[in-house]
UniProtKB/TrEMBL annotation, chain A:
This is Tricarballylate utilization 4Fe-4S protein TcuB. Keywords: Membrane, Transmembrane, Transmembrane helix. The chain crosses the membrane at residues 102-123, 147-171, 224-245, 257-277, 298-316, 322-342. InterPro entries: Citrate_utilization_prot_B, NarG-like_sf. Coiled coil: none annotated.
Automatic annotation (TrEMBL), chain B:
It holds the Pfam family FAD_binding_2. One of its GO terms (molecular function) is oxidoreductase activity. Keywords: FAD, Flavoprotein, Oxidoreductase. The keyword Flavoprotein applies. InterPro entries: CobZ (IPR012831), FAD-dep_OxRdtase_2_FAD-bd (IPR003953), FAD-oxidoreductase_2 (IPR050315), FAD/NAD-bd_sf (IPR036188), Succ_DH/fumarate_Rdtase_cat_sf (IPR027477). Its cofactor is FAD. PANTHER family: FAD-DEPENDENT OXIDOREDUCTASE 2 FAD BINDING DOMAIN-CONTAINING PROTEIN (PTHR43400:SF7), FUMARATE REDUCTASE (PTHR43400). This is FAD-dependent tricarballylate dehydrogenase TcuA.
Amino acid sequence: MHGTRILQEADRLMTVCNSCRYCEGLCAVFPAMEMRRAFSDGDLNYLANLCHACGACYTDCQFSPPHEFNVNVPKTLAVARAESYAAYAWPRAFAGAFARNGLFISLIAALSVAAFIFGFAAINDPGVLYGIHTGPGAFYKLMPHNAMALLFGAALLYAILALMMGVRAFWRAIGEPIGMKTDPKSLLQAMRDAGELRYLDGGGVGCFNEDDHPTDRRKLYHHFTFYGFALCFAATCVGTLYHYLLAREAPYAWWDLPVVLGTLGGIGLVVGPIGLLSEKWKRDPVLVDEQQMGMDTAFILMLFLTSISGLALLLWRESAAMGPLLALHLGVVFALFITMPYGKFVHGIYRFVALVRYARERQMMAE
Amino acid sequence: MVDLTRRFDVLVIGGGNAALCAAISARRAGASVLVLEGAPKFYRGGNTRHTRNMRCAHDAATEILTGPYTEEEFWQDLLLVTGGQTDEELARFMIHESKDILNWIVEQGVRWQPSLGGTLSLGRTNSFFLGGGRAMLNALYRTAEELGVDILYDAEVIDLKIEDGMFLSAQLKQPVGGRTEVRASTLVAAAGGFEANIEWLKQYWGEAADNFLIRGTPYNRGAILKMLLAKGVQEIGDPTQCHAVAIDARAPKFDGGIITRHDSVVFGIVVNKHAERFYDEGEDIWPKRYAIWGRLVAAQPDQIAYIIFDSTVVTSFMPTLFPPIAGATIAELAGKLELDAAALEQTITGFNAAVQPGTFDHTILDDCRTEGITPAKTHWARRIETPPYLAYPVRPGITFTYLGTRVNRQSRMLMKDGKSSANMFAAGEIMAGNVLGKGYAAGIGMTIGSVFGRVAGREAAKNARN
């Protein structure tokens, strides 16, 4: 017996699939399943997070609906995945954030943007907010750099702590006894698998989305999004280093490294989310956990707002719009940071952890 | 929308592996092709949906096959399982053609993978479809559509107009659109056997057929086969012969597929409803014997049997869809199976007493055997003594039937008078009896389908041009 109805269903499906095994060449889920004959809650949450929702096993399954065995692995594991995020959330009190997540994220985002605008106006005289500021340190007319670094550093650290606590709970539940650091090989393998989205390709043909014609579009848009996000993060890090190590203050020239990284990342983070959203809207409803739509959309929109507001700031930083745009950008980024552990962002973390576990299992099998 | 007023070069009836290989090869040869699949779209493809591999000859190891499997060895295997009941010329032709099929099928978008985990040591002889039979089928349909083959689903053919061995037209019945006469220069019949037609099975098996489970599609009712035989096509194959295995008695009547099978026979004993053993469970390795157990169970009273084993072997075979039925004592297990407890205890006690010491190894013909009981268990015999005692109820699971239309090396149908048909071809289960007089070896059904489908399509296209 399992804790929830969806895990009960996931167990039923894994029992069906384990007696068939036709899909074992499609992704990591089925080989991982084959290493077990019975499934604990943790096992099922592990398999759910290992699933990249490529849809191939649904299209290839002779028992998918309308067959009476009613095998729909992508949808069942999608629901289980979403429920696992709440199950491992830290602190437990915030697990509820995953329900009606779209509303939760938008509220936090709106509030933090408002707080920045109000804060800028309250701390400085209103003229500063709509003033034209150029040259080094222009942004810090609105908010001192140290305050900015402290605020965002704290938000980021909190997010990292909350995520780590969640990962710890997940790690224990999936029965992984030893720490990751003991096994750099698995870690590297998982980084490669995640970095190239190895399992989002239906075993080689591509991802099934709106019909039974596989494409690589989702993979491509996800790459744009992920690497765009990474570049933006790198831009922030380089900017921080410039400030503290080289004493060079933002805004930087358009050809300078933080701006180049941020611009490239920003473009990726515009193209990627638009693509992912359009794929999501086209997706065959039979594969989709509709409860998750809000959470997915909220996260994608937050990423999109981050990049759009950042690019707008770059374009109009020498005009009167700079103040409001900076408030908007900082508000969105702040909201993104503090909601990271309570939204779709965690999918990447748990999936990565599942990939590490899979790499380790494979290695142990080989030994 | 498919234009049904036109005359097609090639009409393919059926929608499985053989039908699609025929449609694709005819289309690649320049013919206009219409495929009529009687099932709705989800159930398209007959039994191909449930397949997973194909047996092809090859001279050297490939990326997915561990070693050579020569034409001669393939032929010897076929000879063994059929007991010589095969058309040698046709079978050798098929085996030769199977070599090229390995590559041809990949060119049609199908992808292979190394032998599946938990399968019957087929890594050298059989190539497995990545994602299974339905994935293979999806690839063939995608290719056929891209090539411009017309395909209709829910397209039931209710009559064929045939004169002197020459196909003229087919009566098509659709849920929407009613009846239409479809004209074509040539016909490829690839519509499967009649295993889903219980009434027809009863003609040969009597009431026992009511207790058969049909492993595959409910749509293979043999309508096309019946029409062809009624209109002068020569029949081949023993109507009582079919590929039948022992599957879980709790499986659905139709379409339970691969997952209802049991691989545990060699690890225990099999008893009938009187709690008596009836055949040597350890006669040979399972891949060579799995296909005889359907018929063995069919011959038992009420067509039911029980695989009985103990808790020491539960992880020795593939995990099963239905859990084993368990009892803390043999009597309790007998109660749950509605068997006579005393009889079952007597059978197991007698069996245990007959087990000789030996070194168990399920991968070879080991020396664990019984002495002094009939039937003997000649290998892998171990005492059943560690509770809980476990059982799977099994019934005959029919995969496909062997009665079919006689064909020549062009896949062209032969008429009762021995002449070859002017424009009718057959491929797949509907003509499998040419190659399989009886018996079965894993993956041969798909070989028959792909090889003769490809040949039939090519020849039909050539025929249509002349």
